[in-house]
Amino acid sequence: MRRWKKKVVTGGNKGIGFEICRQLALNGLDVILTARNESRGIEAVNKLNVSGLSNVVFHQLDIKNSTSIANLANFIETYYKKLDVLVNNAAEGGVIYVDDDKFKDGGGYMQVIDENVELLNGIIEEPYELAVECLITNYYGAKKTTEALVPLLGLSKSPRIVNVTSAYGDLHVIVTGGNKGIGFEICRQLALNGLDVILTARNESRGIEAVNKLNVSGLSNVVFHQLDIKNSTSIANLANFIETYYKKLDVLVNNAAEGGVIYVDDDKFKDGGGYMQVIDENVELLNGIIEEPYELAVECLITNYYGAKKTTEALVPLLGLSKSPRIVNVTSAYGDLHWFHNEKLKEELHDIKNLTEERIDEILQWFLRDFKAAKLRENGWPLTVAAYKVSKAALNAYTRLMARKYQNILLNCATPGYCITDMTSQTGFNTAEEGAKCPVMAAMLPDDGPSGVYFDRMEIAPFILTPRGI
């Protein structure tokens, strides 16, 4: 998109509207952020300007007021001569939160279904006056604004109108390991796209804190449920929660993972180039910088492969009740088979027509035996970040097997790239926000999208045996 594209976003001073403005500005569009309250709108624009986004300006707009709409149209005609994009985002909910604590403790909007109408007494109210305001804003306001700006949109070579709607009560997503880093960003971006997100984390307090952060930002369509993917009871509890409250699941993002390493000397790790120095040729040079104890190797496989597998198996029945089910396994370029030095093993893991789940299990147990006996080099395993590489290679193979088994589910791998997170000791080339875009895209594929493929930073890439960048 070119810089001279002019875009109007209604209700842009907070929440989703503010984030739409920010992301459009980051993509080089000139944004006119509008809000009914002038001081709040100016404050929002100042916040974006201070962050370096000088291509955002403010104009007051009350979409319920015809004069206010006309003033905006005159402003655009006078200064820009045309309009390229209109995002009708301003909206009202039509409800009052009578008991905010009970509303949140009960699961937020996940509990707001018609079967629970009596149970919601004293928690939320929907007075007639707010119902009227809701229709005037959400429908008639968007309609009036559109009608007033269509002539200016007609002067653009590529006009767009986006009406922000809701998949309320429709699409439910689980993200494992959602309390920080890439997982948190996946939750945020999916919620911004209107999906109802169940953010899960092993640590309850951190998970609740993450959800509160998203709720405060205006994303009320995110709730928390505790999940330890290494614990079968915890997985079963999550499945029961989904079945009880939502009856189905639409998307599962298996993101939770462990790195299997200890940063012994964090400064040397960062000064040496982070993971760019972590190659098998440097294995001796990494002594005293990172360590990979056997116990962490075991935990790495249990989490990254078996945890994802158990979670998938437990939730497949609920995904089967969705009209458009998706599973996204967050992987890594470290899962590529070129990191293996055993050619026969590489070919075996690549030969998806003959590979079985049982054989993957045997391979993983073989790896752990060799790891414990210090036979990684002898038998051709990766020598650096070994458990992580083996776990992600296994996850890639499992993804392809499951895509063949469950042809009603779009089931893919997605790698975010080398991102700056706690797992990488804050080293990398991409932010968590940038890295999350690939798994989010895979989660929102159209119904005729691919299955059993590998997405490498937004593009389909082959499951290859030769090197590629991390």
Automatic annotation (TrEMBL):
It holds the Pfam family adh_short. GO terms for molecular function: oxidoreductase activity. Keywords: NADP, Oxidoreductase. One of its GO terms (cellular component) is membrane. Transmembrane segments: none annotated. InterPro entries: NAD(P)-bd_dom_sf, SDR_fam. The keyword Secreted does not apply. Belongs to the short-chain dehydrogenases/reductases (SDR) family. This is Glucose/ribitol dehydrogenase. It comes from Tanacetum cinerariifolium (Dalmatian daisy).
